[in-house]
Amino acid sequence: SIGLALPLGVSQAWGSVLFSCLSSLQITQEQAAWLGFSMTMSGCLGSVIVGALLDRFAGCLKLVTVGLMGLAAASFCLFSANAAGGLGLSHRGAISAAYVTGISGGAALNISVPLMFEMIMETLYGWADEGIGAMLSVFLNTVVQIIFLLILSASDADASHLWTAWLTAASMAACCGALLCLRVQYRRLAVDRGTTISEAGCYFDRAVGCY
């Protein structure tokens, strides 16, 4: 739940300062709005496609989610570096890079959200109430957003908000690391397929991790 709430809560709150993070690139508010819209909608479309694929290749939730969160972390690192002028691109190139990295990062994050919810349900199945897991995730997500916005409101209004973009990238990297430590037991999938838990799911999901 924490692994889901941290990057999701930070990124949702970060959307409120997306325009100010890109001020150094001289992007208009309308362009920033279209970027935020594209980040969300690409994730919605990608979620449908990835969900359909994972219906055919069940038991790979962790593998796919780790890859997506790694992509999101890398994309937002490049996004932040580009916004800071660290990539040395022309004005047009910097704007294009902001769109490419922002959309790829936003899509990867939004695709991973339903997968992490599904992973929570698989982990809790058979020994705890799945509804509690979902409720806890939403609660922690809200808490993270509130803390982020409180810190933001206490900062200097005239100061750069670029640190929030780096924080967003760091939260996704932290989530990726936390997922690598998790061993997923597909109890519900084992019941559906009539197999043992040790045979349900791919090797990476079952064996890689420490808890």
Question: Can you offer a commentary on this structure?
Answer:
This protein has 211 residues and is mostly helical. The protein has one domain (2-207): Growth Hormone, Chain: A, CATH 1.20.1250.20. Helices cover 75% and strands 0% of the residues. It contains nine helices and no strands. The protein has helices spanning 2-14, 18-21, 29-56, 61-83, 91-124, 130-154, 162-180, 187-193, 203-207. Helix 1 runs antiparallel to helix 5 (91-124), helix 4 (61-83) packs antiparallel against helix 5 and helix 5 (91-124) runs antiparallel to helix 6. The protein starts with a helix and ends with a helix.
Summarize the structure.
Keywords: Membrane, Transmembrane, Transmembrane helix. This protein is mostly helical and 211 residues long.
Task: Kindly list the characteristics that best describe this protein.
single chain; 211 residues; mainly alpha; Growth Hormone, Chain: A; 9 helices; 75% helix; FLVCR1-2_SLC49-like
Strand fraction band?
A: under 5%
- Average the pLDDT over all residues and give the rounded result: 86
Number of strands: 0
Largest sheet: none
Broad structural category: mainly alpha
**Number of structurally distinct domains:** 1
Radius of gyration: 18 Å
User: Kindly, what is the distance between the CA atoms of the first and last residues, rounded to a whole number of angstroms?
Assistant: 14 Å
Model regions low in confidence, pLDDT < 50 over at least 5 residues:
none
InterPro entries: FLVCR1-2_SLC49-like, MFS_trans_sf
Keywords: Membrane, Transmembrane, Transmembrane helix
Membrane topology: Multi-pass membrane protein
Transmembrane segments: 31-54, 66-85, 97-120, 132-151, 163-182
